[in-house]
């Protein structure tokens, strides 16, 4: 007499987690340095020193009852102001603190936004390849999850395919750029065409189709690439953000939702996001971290280590003949599995203690995801193994 | 085309929050010291020094990538071990880390537990007076919320009334002791009778009726009172706990669910709690706070200030002739509204800048809740106003 869906979600573990645990078990046998674990997107650069300085200052300078006390559900004004100022400074957008809602990271932010947008019968679209938890969160709020086929081999957006997926029940399209798992950054041109399509279809259906921009990797871009600011392209965009990747704070659970007042029904939507968050047990984002973000919203990561890894792994694999999507952002490579069967390739790689995640759960069979948040030596030493895997 | 329930939850603010904001506005006019705000249950004693020592040690001694990294969804083993050890030491129960699931506080813990227990058509019972958000969380997971009438004037449990509320759709009964808003502690005798009733009814209906023990106030007991350990009385008890009140960390969002393996379907239930948490956007509890709790699970609050307030306010009000439930725990007094109309009394009190919350939202009209997390002087100076209110 338990909830069947909850039991299934709690007992069917993800392929990524399974691989990670397999790697831990193998490390105990062959040594951590001999496991080439590209499975888990866990930031490997430390949080910037400015963050630790801010923690110390906040602890020294704030009355403890205030420091650790409840904030309002939307979050401390100082943190929301700092985030609004940072967005305004970078993108020239008129962002106000009243459009920001602080959350315990991007996952509950997405749950709140999907919950707010789900009218009876609503569908929410994800563009393959996509982060597998989108399906869990969308179905969890009672919406139908639908997927747009991938744009092979560039992993931009297949707009013709997306247009065919739209219908009068479409509430939103999830846009995740820089993309997990493809590592691609959608171009301004791609996004402008998406915006034009959604504007036309919104008018046709008589209700807004929102973009939900999941942007934990916004700052993780390389070689001059930049992720365009979507609300400037399509006003009915709701941004979900997390400091997990940009400030290497994935365990601390601090992020936000930005609901532009200029979005369709912007004011009501902000209230609905707050209500959906409350429904899911949101009280406030961790208060110490709110005060740190008030001081660090403009701090940027030092990406040198990721960039070096990216170039080494992308260069090494393409030189070996692997087909790899151009990795302009995040910290993933998306690689076409030699032979075409990603699960078979992942199994074969496991036998050489190389851990790569099959793309099936990302809605993109035939590809594997490699996370390059690893030591540089791991990449160097893995390349001969990738060479051997071509003939295994 | 937004979600109607989410919009309603986000735009209909709670009576408590409204009163609190009214108090802030009045403070700007008449001065903070002249507003007698008994509305909000925000701890007023600082977190124990041991907690700040632990934060500093953790920051100094832990590699930042590990310190701020993802933990497993269930939480760091060290924190779960410390919690299990503490429970075992205090209650002699055989608690293991594998029965503990760390959460971002009690609210998402409750959402996860209700989500795990909700079979199609399920009902979950709350015993009046109760914390109003229970209704939000229960209805949010799709269960029916039902309430057991209060046991006036002692605010124990009216077991005859509770028995009449049970039926084959009853999945769980929420037990909140020490109680918000009544400040009462259910006695061992009350709980033993409840356990016997639920055991009999579980057998009759052929499925377990769980107790969900919401225990953020477990340590806040006075004058020799103690909250009995419910899993020892009724094995199918799931405990939701938060460090918000005991360690004065309400904004930091750290708590846990304890699912005894001895509960009916205990192992599957733990998986279902994990799945329901994932469904609501849980990734892990804030990692810094997990590491603090690993060191501070056995730290207890210094309750002297609350106890002094409790005795002054209870003594003062009863001497004036107010009828007040015996306040053995938490930091609330539940007071019968003179004249019987709690809303009228609350409005009348507002005109003297005394803020008390009507009991209607707690399922108990005719009473008002006073939170005594205030300065001692506030209590002393409020008593003449409470005297005047008797003849206003």
Q: Whole-Å distance between the termini of chain A?
A: 48 Å
Chains forming the largest contact: A-B, 80 and 80 residues
Indicate the proportion of strand residues of chain A. 5-15%
As a percent range, the share of helical residues of chain A equals 40-55%
User: Treating each run of at least 4 consecutive H or I residues as one helix, how many helices of chain A?
Assistant: 15
Q: How many runs of DSSP E, i.e. beta strands of chain A?
A: 12
User: How would you sum up the global shape of chain A?
Assistant: globular
Q: What is the residue-mean pLDDT of chain A, rounded to a whole number?
A: 96
Name the poorly predicted regions of chain A: none
| Structural class category of chain A | alpha/beta
Radius of gyration of chain A equals 21 Å
The strand line-up of the biggest sheet of chain A is 2-8-7-6-5-3-4
